[in-house]
Amino acid sequence: MIILGIESSCDETSAAICCEGKIINNVIATQTVHKRYGGVVPELASRAHQQNIVPVVSQALDNANVSINEITGISYTQGPGLLGALLVGSSFAKSVAFAMNVPLVPVHHLHAHILAHFIENPVPKFPFLCLTVSGGHTQIVKVSSYLEMEIMGQTKDDAVGEAFDKCAKMLGLPYPGGPMIDKLAKYGNSEAFTFSETDMPNLDYSFSGIKTSVLYFLRDQVKDNKDFISENLNDLCASIQKTLVKMLMNKFLVASKELGIDQLAIAGGVAANSELRNVLLNEINNGCEVYIPKFEYCTDNAAMIAMAGHLAFEAGFTGELHDSPKPRMPF
């Protein structure tokens, strides 16, 4: 079984080859055009995907020493994501599947992030809890099998990745701001400043409040000292990051105790955050087993799409050529 995986949900064009359940490579073309706008521009993203998709797939096949004629199945991101971006990947996947007469599998982007844990050992045991955190989603998911997942809690407004990026923008940092906050926070004092946290009922989150708290705090401080941000940048980054990670982990650990599950995992782009990784790893001391993917499998990538496709093929699930991209695809 040789699976070609294609990812094009946002601003990363990626292709990967999965051979008999083993990821051979993971080629990613990152779009830099969005930096000047401070965020992803959907129209520019879809155009870049059109330019990148053929060379990226060709490179993945060449690096794996695999011919297109040897592909036995194709998996692609069906959603959620940007419609134009999804259309490029899905149209390409369907065209190749039709031309080569091979089956294809539409993959849920968030399911694939979770299934990235099965790319390399050690892998979590079922059931496990996965904190899925990205620029568009924040969820606590109970994973009972490869195909059986249930949301136990999620954000009711903004995603934590969006909160990182918006706070970074307030500090004058370039897009994407989340990684910049993580980088500068290493040199700051996380106890320097405090920001309000929104306490939602049950296992749900809210991150709109902390953005407002940071905005008003900076506004008041800059009134008295126009250089306040530049003089305290590292401390601000460390304090913002600590607050956001604390909010994430508090609910995640409550879910672990309430459900009696000590297998804990993180997934998604924000799973690359060093503070979140370190705090989660500390739970090993409390008797939990912790699983964190490699950095390259946290951000959007085709390796997770290829692995999700492989697992779906093994379970006998395939899609149809008339399956449509779903920008707001339900979990």
Architecture overview:
The protein is an alpha/beta fold and 331 residues long. Helix 9 links the parallel strand 9 (263-267) and strand 10. It has helices at 42-63, 83-100, 109-115, 160-170, 177-185, 208-224, 228-231, 233-259, 274-281, 302-314; strands spanning 2-7, 12-19, 22-30, 73-79, 104-108, 128-133, 138-143, 149-154, 263-267, 289-291. The strands form two sheets. Strands 3-2-1-4-5 form a five-stranded mixed sheet, with helices on both faces. 41% of the residues lie in helices and 18% in strands. It has two domains: 2-114 and 298-314, ATPase, nucleotide binding domain (Nucleotidyltransferase, domain 5, 2-Layer Sandwich), CATH 3.30.420.40; 122-293, ATPase, nucleotide binding domain (Nucleotidyltransferase, domain 5, 2-Layer Sandwich). The protein has ten helices and ten strands. It is globular. The mean pLDDT is 95.
What labels describe this entry?
single chain; 331 residues; alpha/beta; Nucleotidyltransferase, domain 5; 5-stranded mixed sheet; 10 helices
In terms of DSSP E residues, the strand content is 15-25%
**Radius of gyration of CA atoms, rounded to a whole number:** 20 Å
Strands in their spatial order, largest beta sheet: 3-2-1-4-5
Cα-to-Cα separation, first versus last residue: 27 Å
Total beta-strand segments: 10
**How helix-rich are the residues, as a percent range?**
40-55%
Shape annotation: globular
Indicate the mean pLDDT. 95
CATH architecture name of the largest domain: 2-Layer Sandwich
Q: Helical segment tally?
A: 10
